[in-house]
Amino acid sequence: MANNFSCGKLTDWVNHSNTYLERSSPILLVVFAMLIPPAAILNALVLVVIWRRRILQTTSNLFLRNLALSDLAVAIWVLPLLMTCSAVNISHISERIICNVANVASVSSHIFGSVSFLTMTAATVDRYLALYLHLRYTAVVTRKRVIYSCIGLWLISIVTSIILPVSFALYKTVVVLFFSGSMMTIMFCYYKMYRILKYHHAQIQIQMAGQPVAALPNMNKYKSSVMNLVYIFLLYIVLYVPYIFGCMMPMENMKQKHEAMITMMVGLVLIFLNSTLNPLLYCWRQMEIRNAIKDTVGWRPAMCMTSESIRSLRTYPPITSKASSNTLSSPSTINNINNIIQDTNITHQ
To answer: CA-CA distance, 322 to 334, in Å (whole number)?
Structure first.
């Protein structure tokens, strides 16, 4: 690459990629190509099943849809751009092409990566508000406000991405500050939720006098939703920290620039891997989404009966000619029939 080549604030990055990362470009090309199909298919499935199933269209799942949308954008837009950068770097077609593609890819990566991380932060705050506000939650956290919040997350990510072409040093500072602020917010929410849940658990034990706590399905469901976010949070920590660490590394000489850019490149690959792992985590932790995806892709037969339906059948009283009318009109029989109808409807959805 010519010494007088200029690519704005990304000149050092492009020159470094051409000089030191040329041998790794084919590997990066293959890695990016392997990440696209699972990330695109899985996130598209999550969006489709939430859109098709009314029971999944909750206020909290709006954050999940926003997260899946940003991950889908990474798969169908950012990763192909990075594949183009690697291909151009291998073929040495044009310095100007790799510069233009690198600028678009870097800005796009920041936008979608920021939306993903900020959405996870907002979802954690949402779970804290559900516990803190209790009965007032549905009145305060409305669907319209959540939609406006998601739009605000996209606007913040777009505005901060403008810093990247202006000053790379300022951009790194903003990234570190955003990451630190989000981490502090998440840790604060988890701490407060732990304190509140611990208090409620103690009160429940006293009031129920030794009865099993499992008798409170709403609290168990809430704990499950919090644990889902904990797993996502831990996944983000593992995958985002290398890139943040690379942003914090000094770049005063060529050796330091080389080490920092290698760390940031590895961090970027891990961040994009997150777009594939997120929907897998949803399917593992959320039974409703997992079953909906199985029905959508045809993993479960359309005509089948659940174990609950079979148990309901076994509880039917025998129908005889003398007491057929009494048997069919008994409350237990009607309840059993209603249970089977509901289970069959769920299976057919």
So the answer is: 19
Could you count the other beta carbons within 10 Å of the beta carbon of residue 19? 11
Most confident of 96-110, 129-143, 218-232, 251-265: 129-143
Domain ranges of the chain: 7-214+286-297
Dist. CA 87–CA 236, nearest whole Å:
29
Residue showing tokens 């008994």:
330
Please indicate whether residue 83 or residue 221 has the higher confidence score (pLDDT).
Answer: 83
Amino acid at 310: I
Higher pLDDT, 10 or 184: 184
pLDDT at 320: 42
In whole angstroms, what is the distance from residue 12 CA to residue 199 CA?
Answer: 54
Beta bridge partners of 7: 9
Size of the chain, expressed as the number of residues it contains = 349
Q: How far apart are CA 111 and CA 153, in angstroms?
A: 10
Find all residues with CB under 8 Å of 209, minimum gap 6, and list them.
none
- Residue 38: how many CB atoms within 10 A of its CB? 16
8-state DSSP, 54: G
Model confidence at 317, in pLDDT bands (50, 70, 90)? very low
Instruction: Spell 116-154 as b/e; 16+ CB within 10 A means b.
Output: bbbbbbbbbbbbbebbeeeeeeeeebeeeebeebbeebb
pLDDT at 342 over 50: no
Give the burial string for 257-290 (b: 16+ CB within 10 Å, else e): beebbbbbbebbbbbbbbbbbbbeebbebbeebe
Rounded to the nearest 5°, which phi and psi values hold at 332? -65, -40
pLDDT at 231: 83
Looking at domain 7-214+286-297, its CATH superfamily turns out to be Rhodopsin 7-helix transmembrane proteins (1.20.1070.10)
